[in-house]
Write a structure and sequence with these properties.
Keywords: Membrane, Transmembrane, Transmembrane helix. There is one protein chain. This protein is mainly alpha-helical. It has one domain. Helices cover about 90% and strands about 0% of the residues. The protein is built from 1 helix and no strands. The chain is rod-shaped.
C-alpha cells in the first residue's frame, strides 16, 4: 500500500507533464505560424518588387 502523499505527488506530476506538453505544442504552433507569416511576407515583398520593378 502506497502512502497517499506519494500518490498525490504522482498525480500532480502527471498533470504537470501533460500541461507542459500542451504548452510546448502551443509554443511550436505559434512559432510555426510566425515563420509561415514571415515567409509569406518575404515572398509578397519580392513579388511586389518584381512587379513594380
Amino acid at each position: 500500500m502506497r502512502r497517499p502523499l506519494s500518490a498525490l505527488l504522482d498525480r500532480a506530476h502527471i498533470r504537470y507533464r501533460s500541461l507542459t506538453a500542451r504548452g510546448l505544442g502551443a509554443l511550436y504552433t505559434i512559432m510555426l505560424i510566425g515563420f509561415l507569416a514571415y515567409l509569406t511576407q518575404q515572398s509578397v515583398a519580392q513579388l511586389l518588387a518584381i512587379w513594380t520593378g
